[in-house]
Amino acid sequence: MKKLLSIVAAGALLLGLAGCASSGDSGDSAGGDGPKAVGDLVVGFAQVGAESGWRTANTKDIQDSFEEAGIELKFSDAQQKQENQIKAIRSYIQQGVDYIAFSPVVETGWDAVLNEAKAAGIPVILTDRAVDSKDTSLYVSFLGSDFIEEGKKAGQWVLDQYKDSTEPVNIVQLEGTTGAAPAIDRAEGFAEVIADNENLKVVASQTGDFTRAGGKQVMEAMLKSQPDIDLVYAHNDDMGLGAIEAIEAAGLVPGKDIKIVTVDAVHDGMQALADGKINFIVECSPLLGAQLVDIIKTLNDGGTVEPRIITEETTFTQEQAIEALPDRKY
Ligand code: GYE
């Protein structure tokens, strides 16, 4: 029995290695001299910024997880600017960290700096957002949500909500940061699903940069230019919360006169859903820290990790938000 198990284990290891072959040699543990003591590892993390409640929760979770694991974390905040993130990554390369993790603000333009990391033998892990690099050997793994799926879930709620409507439904979309994976994919998934009912029309769509202020400003302008808005689809809670302020300032009732669907399910969003100001939220989990630590420990031990690790998440109606709120961690 023992022998059988070890054969199975060896087979699984081989399969794992074969599965990882496409991500090249960047899956090796840093240095190649066998595992380092966990306490000696140094990881550089280049964060997007502090644009939303989601991001704040994500930063805290990552910092807490590394502290708990006893792994040194060098952390930088790029203030939503790609050039700052590239600078941070270059400085991590220069400092000779063992691993680099980052959440790319936009999808494009990473090949040069990722090649520099590869040349320095520093494995890179993408957390939360994707890059569009064709060369997948530039990173070991992408840990984060399926944003297309999130867009589809939002679209499905809208489709169900208006299934009996014979009139046009005017939808406005508050997009995330232009060029960011979650903005591109959440728009795509949503559009695909609502295309099933020709009454559902996105009459205006503009970026609010994932911020509350951005969402408010764009919504104010849309309320002036669009005479009859039925529903707001915001790519995150913060922009939805900004839209609520604009809708109330215009003398309308959010959640009733204008329905609101958002993505994230952070505390303030869930509170607004419980209060009936938002109608539906698609969850996107910011709690990626423990999984990131696991990936790094596995690589350090010479193991392999899946090239794509998808976060599990759910959706919330008002009743579900009321029930979930007391136990919500963020
Ligand atoms: O939904 C939004 C944040 O990349 C998934 O970025 C993340 C998104 C999140 O600013 O609130």
| Uncertain regions spanning at least 5 consecutive residues | 1-31
What does the radius of gyration come to? 22 Å
Question: What's the CATH C level of the largest domain?
Answer: Alpha Beta
Ligands, ions, cofactors: beta-D-fucofuranose
Number of strands: 12
Largest sheet: 6 strands, parallel
Subcellular location: Cell envelope
Keywords: Signal
InterPro entries: Peripla_BP_I (IPR028082), SBP_2_dom (IPR025997)
GO cellular component, one term: cell envelope
Architecture overview:
The chain is an alpha/beta fold and 330 residues long. The protein has 2 domains: 38-145 and 286-312, Rossmann fold (3-Layer(aba) Sandwich); 147-284, Response regulator (Rossmann fold, 3-Layer(aba) Sandwich), CATH 3.40.50. The chain has 11 helices and 12 strands. The protein has helices at residues 2-20, 53-69, 82-95, 111-119, 147-161, 181-194, 212-225, 237-249, 267-274, 289-300, 318-324; strands at 42-47, 72-77, 99-102, 124-127, 141-144, 169-175, 200-207, 231-234, 259-264, 280-283, 308-310, 315-316. It has a 6-stranded parallel β-sheet with strand order 2-1-3-4-5-11, with helices on both faces. Strands 7-6-8-9-10-12 form a 6-stranded mixed β-sheet, sandwiched between helices. Helix 7 packs across helix 8 and helix 9 packs across helix 11. The longest helix is centred in the N-terminal third of the chain and has 19 residues, at 2-20. The termini are far apart. The model is unreliable at 1-31 (pLDDT under 50). Bound molecules: beta-D-fucofuranose. The site of beta-D-fucofuranose (GYE) has 13 residues, from helix 2 and strand 9.
